[in-house]
Amino acid sequence: MGTRGPLPSGNFRFPPLPLAGDVQLVFYPLKDDELCHESIKVIAARKPIDFSFLPIPEDQVYAGARGGDMKKVLEALRAATDWNETVLSYWVGPGCE
């Protein structure tokens, strides 16, 4: 993996304030009408890492990367330096706001 160090503590904000009007992230439960405990991995790097091979649609639901795409993600991370990751867990579904 890339150079690892502690992530700063505190609240995570997405999107960051400079992008607040341009980016939106909406979570849907994996199981309809059920409260689901899910996670998302956040990768931060000092230099851009090319993930352009991921088929991320605009203004559509994205269900995540498939097996072959995940292999390419791992290869891109192995080739990169000076990056870090964290996993954010959350609940999504009925009753969540």
Strand order of the largest sheet: 1-2
Number of helices: 1
Helix percent reads 10-25%
Beta-sheet strand percentage?
Answer: 15-25%
Structural class: alpha+beta
Largest sheet: 2 strands, antiparallel
Instruction: Report the end-to-end length measured between terminal Cα atoms.
Output: 35 Å
- In N-to-C order, the SSE pattern is EHE
Q: Shape from CA axes?
A: globular
Beta strands, count: 2
Average residue-wise pLDDT? 77
Number of domains: 1
Contiguous low-pLDDT stretches (5 residues minimum) are none
- The Cα radius of gyration reads 15 Å
Which descriptors apply to this entry?
alpha+beta, two-stranded antiparallel sheet, 13% helix, 97 residues
Quick description:
It is built from one helix and two strands; from the N terminus they run βαβ. The protein is α+β, with helices and mostly antiparallel strands.
